[in-house]
Structures are given as C-alpha cells and as structure tokens.
What does this fold into?
Amino acid sequence: MEYISSDTNVWLDFKTIGFLELPFRLPYAYLMNSDAIHDELLSPVDLSESLIKLGLIETDLSIEEFYLASEYMEKYKKPSKYDCIALAIAKYGRFN
It folds into this structure.
C-alpha cells in the first residue's frame, strides 16, 4: 500500500463537494499529523472523527520530521505550520 501525507485543505474540499469518502476508495492510505487533525479539522464538528472512521491515519512526527518541518517553517513564510509538517512527513516517506 502506498501512503500519502495530507493536509487539511484537501479534506475540507472533499467535504464541501459531498465526497469525503471518495479518496478512501483508492488504493492509498492517507496520513495526517495528529495535532493537525485535532487543531485544524474543527468545522464541521464531526469532520475529524468522520475522516478517522473512513481510514485517515493519525501520525506523530519522528524527530527527523520535526527538525525538517522546523527548517521549512524558518525558510518558507507562506505555508502554515501544518503544511510544513505534512511536507516533512512526505519527504521522509517512512511509511513507504
């Protein structure tokens, strides 16, 4: 199985168009930092719970991912903290 590091925006978009379950029909597993899930997926209220039930995998950062995300946050000012975390998780690809 191939793993994909995701961020909040993609899930909000799928929720908006009414197809939240659609990505989970594909042969991929979706990862998202546990802090991002609980800090950013707040509206609608049940969004984070729905995604976890559908198969979104909560993950914590490895030390390497933490340091890389920190470097990204220093270097790039426009991406959010959680965008940088998602990029760091994708970069290390520890699940593949």
Notes: Helices lie at 8-16, 34-40, 47-54, 63-75, 81-92.
